[in-house]
Specification:
4 helices; 6-stranded mixed β-sheet; 25% helix; alpha/beta
């Protein structure tokens, strides 16, 4: 399976990331906020900001036999630099039988990863919902195992939510 991404001519298959605009929905109406921001997956408001409300962003990473992708996905998070200091990364694994959990453990030494073990269900939606219920961040972002975040993505999202505090979603 190749991810669907947006390229210069619109959506197309076969790329691991998208160098396209980000959209923020303050209320109902989409508004282009940055022509250089790459946001390949959605981010939603989970809780109103508060001084002691946990990390600013929980990143939900559903996995299943994603060993060949995960190192790049986590390297993309690492490329965010200091912006990673206020993240929570929730990996919900669906009973992988490849190197997925070994890669997660290796990166958990450098990233704030929490693994949510799961029996094999074949239902990534259910697993994602479980991770959402355990997330403690003010916002929630999604990183699928075969996606890559480009450097500056988390900082750009943080700037967007600071500039548009009423925004409920960035995508």
């Amino acid at each position: 399976r190749r991810p669907l991404t947006a390229g210069p001519a619109g959506p197309r298959r076969g790329e691991d990331f998208c160098p396209r605009p980000a959209w923020v929905w303050p209320g109902r109406f989409p508004r282009l906020v940055s022509p250089t921001t790459c946001v390949a997956v959605s981010m939603i408001a989970a809780a109103p900001p508060g001084p002691d409300s946990g990390p600013w962003l929980s990143v939900v990473v559903p996995t299943y036999n994603g060993g060949r992708y995960l190192a790049r996905a986590f390297a993309g998070i690492e490329s965010q630099g200091r912006a990673c200091e206020d993240l929570e990364i929730l990996v919900i694994d669906d009973g992988s039988t490849d190197s997925t959990l070994d890669i997660v453990r290796r990166f958990s030494r450098r990233l704030p990863i929490r693994v949510l073990p799961s029996q094999r269900t074949g239902n990534w939606v259910s697993n994602t919902n479980r991770a959402l219920s355990e997330a403690s961040g003010r916002y929630i972002g999604f990183l699928h195992q075969d996606d890559v975040w480009l450097p500056g993505r988390v900082a750009a999202l943080n700037s967007l939510v600071a500039a548009l505090p009423s925004a409920a979603m960035a995508s």
